[in-house]
Amino acid sequence: MFEEQGIGAASIEAIAAAAGFTRGAFYSNFKSKDELIIAMIEDHVERTIRRNLDLLARHKNIADFIEALKTMDRSRQDPLGRSPLLHMEMILFVARAEKRRPELAERLRARRKLIADIVATTSKNSGKNGSPDPTWTGAIVLALEDGFRLHRLIDPQTTPADSFLRAIGDLQRAMGISSR
Predict the structure, then answer these.
(1) From CA 128, how far away is CA 93, in angstroms rounded?
(2) Which residue, 15, 32, 123, 145, has fewest beta-carbon neighbours within 10 Å?
(3) pLDDT tens track for 130-142
């Protein structure tokens, strides 16, 4: 429902009906649309972390890990993985709700930690010492991903779907941390 209509236009009644529930059933699970959005973001972050840790367990160096990301079908994962517009809309929706920002910040920190863990693990596995600070790298990578996601929404003709991963590969090579 959110993918089709956007967060603002999707009513509780429409959301419940699309899920095959009554309005009462919706409210027995969620206090508000805000709470549903937070639950969706939590689910997305948990899925992302699991998926990436599974990839990391199979692809120990950065080049192999990035190649695995490139070949993974992210469109099947979850609504936020499928819809960059919905992903950005949810982030902005929660960011506008000042009392909800701490919840969004928790998810953001979890995503940064995931990337920091990937950077630390792949650096260690490739024998690289003195690699960039994994925590700061996590922040940079997420900002880059969100930026390309937004650019793709605005100008898909000049922002290819693989822009983010191409940029990561370019940065990796420029920093001399390619293992290939």
Answers:
(1) 40
(2) 32
(3) 567 888 888 898 8
Give whole-number Cα distances, 84 to 8, 23, 117, 161, in Å.
Answer: 16, 28, 24, 11
Amino acid at 139: A
Tens of pLDDT, residue by residue over 4-55, are: 888 888 889 999 998 888 889 999 999 988 888 888 888 888 888 888 889 8
Handedness of CA 161, 113, 44, 56 (dihedral sign): positive
Domain limits of the chain? 1-30, 32-174
> What CATH number is given for 32-174 in this structure?
1.10.357.10
The span from the CA of 105 to the CA of 108, in Å, is: 5
Cα-atom radius of gyration of the chain, to the nearest Å?
Answer: 18
